[in-house]
Recover the amino acids of this structure.
């Protein structure tokens, strides 16, 4: 389960496209700043077929339309698979049960519906106090240190605490859960050694056992958490235990590996744009806009994939059945046809239209309200509590896949 999640659609497609122009997205220069490369790709018309047969959507309109077009799905349709798609298919033949992120209706609809109550408006409102408390605790410690790592001391632990609480992981298990989650999360950047592969396998097994034990525990001592609710669904025959594990795994990855980068990328953009940082300090209510603008300007998930379920004419192009389309969400946010001055980071920007950082259509990010809440609370707290925050050393970027930082040394500056 987790190996496939780790090799998730986004990173995997970029990694598998060696020798192709997509590989250029992975080159170190483009990894540091992929946006000029996206602009060049957009100038080729917004949708083109790469030399290895993967379609690439880079304009806002094409990305938006692919995500909402029900002629595309995330699973291959029956029938022959073009070569460009083969590697992806092999990833799927491991016998693991996929999470609903990787499923088409009707399974996707059924499983997403079971997880949805955890992200309803009343629930999200209820999480605010928890997010604020976790934020304050972490910043207390960071402030005491004076110099700290924005990622490992703040942006990383915050979403992990929230997702642990949401899932209903008991405090006694959180250290282990954190350790396992980190091993799984790191593999999103690619599994680069046999040792890492074995560590990942061991982590998957342990996590699997941990979730199974938790299900047993929640049957005896139910709580108001996701694992308890999914255990009920399991006992009512609405989902299998394997589907429950896959759902928990999906939420774990989402909780560990995305929001950290919203907070990290947002802080970096603010410190790189002193006028914006000053505006946020002046008016911390702009934190909502700062989180939103970060998602447009430098989104953690840069791309996703869809596959045509039939031979079709899409935007005048003949897309064959089972041909994949790489949807470059990060490029959509910088499309001048959709956003004025798209390369300018402006937290007061009133978005003319929704950015695509949370994707679109039926797979629109289920955790978006939670991610927005965490981003807003974190950026607001930094502006209010650490007004002299400054970069202490150049940040280090993640290797690939997810866009974000591994290290970002900062100082709290003058008291
Ligand atoms: C799906 C982005 C935070 C749970 C997605 C997708 C994207 C995304 C792009 C859809 C991929 C596709 O269409 O193929 C993000 C970003 C986040 C974030 C940028 C933070 C800034 C979260 C959080 C959770 C979450 C905190 C939950 C704890 C999910 C789930 C799905 C999903 C369950 C699958 C939805 C489906 O397939 O129906 N996310 N996400 N996400 N996300 Fe998030």
């Amino acid at each position: 389960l987790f190996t496939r999640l780790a090799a998730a659609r986004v990173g995997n497609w970029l990694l598998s496209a060696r020798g192709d122009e997509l590989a250029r997205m992975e080159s170190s220069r483009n990894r540091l700043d992929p946006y000029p490369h996206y602009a060049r790709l957009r100038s080729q018309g917004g949708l083109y077929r790469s030399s290895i047969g993967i379609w690439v959507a880079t304009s806002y309109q094409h990305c938006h339309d692919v995500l909402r077009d029900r002629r595309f799905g995330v699973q291959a349709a029956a029938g022959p698979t073009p070569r460009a798609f083969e590697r992806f298919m092999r990833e799927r033949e491991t016998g693991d049960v996929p999470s609903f992120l990787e499923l088409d209706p009707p399974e996707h609809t059924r499983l997403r519906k079971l997880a949805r109550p955890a992200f309803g408006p009343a629930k999200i409102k209820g999480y605010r106090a928890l997010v604020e408390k976790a934020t304050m605790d972490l910043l207390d410690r960071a402030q005491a240190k004076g110099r700290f790592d924005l990622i490992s001391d703040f942006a990383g632990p915050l979403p992990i605490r929230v997702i642990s609480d949401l899932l209903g992981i008991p405090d006694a298990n959180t250290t282990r859960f954190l350790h396992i989650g980190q091993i799984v999360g790191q593999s999103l950047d690619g599994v680069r050694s046999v040792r890492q592969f074995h560590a990942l396998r061991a982590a998957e097994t342990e996590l699997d056992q941990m979730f199974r034990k938790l299900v047993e525990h929640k049957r005896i001592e139910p709580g108001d958490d996701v694992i308890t609710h999914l255990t009920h669904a399991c006992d009512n025959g609405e989902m299998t235990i394997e589907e429950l594990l896959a759902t928990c795994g999906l939420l774990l990855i989402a909780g560990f590996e995305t929001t950290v980068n919203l907070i990290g990328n947002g802080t970096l953009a603010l410190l790189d744009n002193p006028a914006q940082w000053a505006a946020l300090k002046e008016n911390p209510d702009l934190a909502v806009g700062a989180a939103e603008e970060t998602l447009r300007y430098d989104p953690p998930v840069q791309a996703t994939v869809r596959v045509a379920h039939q031979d079709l004419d899409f935007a005048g192009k003949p897309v064959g059945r089972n041909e994949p389309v790489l949807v470059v969400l990060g490029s959509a946010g910088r499309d001048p046809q959709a956003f004025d001055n798209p390369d300018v980071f402006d937290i007061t920007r009133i978005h003319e239209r929704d950015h695509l950082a949370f994707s679109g259509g039926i797979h629109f990010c289920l955790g978006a309200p939670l991610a927005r809440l965490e981003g807003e609370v974190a950026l607001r707290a930094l502006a209010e509590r650490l007004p002299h925050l400054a970069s202490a050393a150049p940040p280090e970027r993640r290797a690939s896949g997810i866009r974000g930082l591994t290290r970002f040394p900062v100082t709290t500056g003058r008291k």
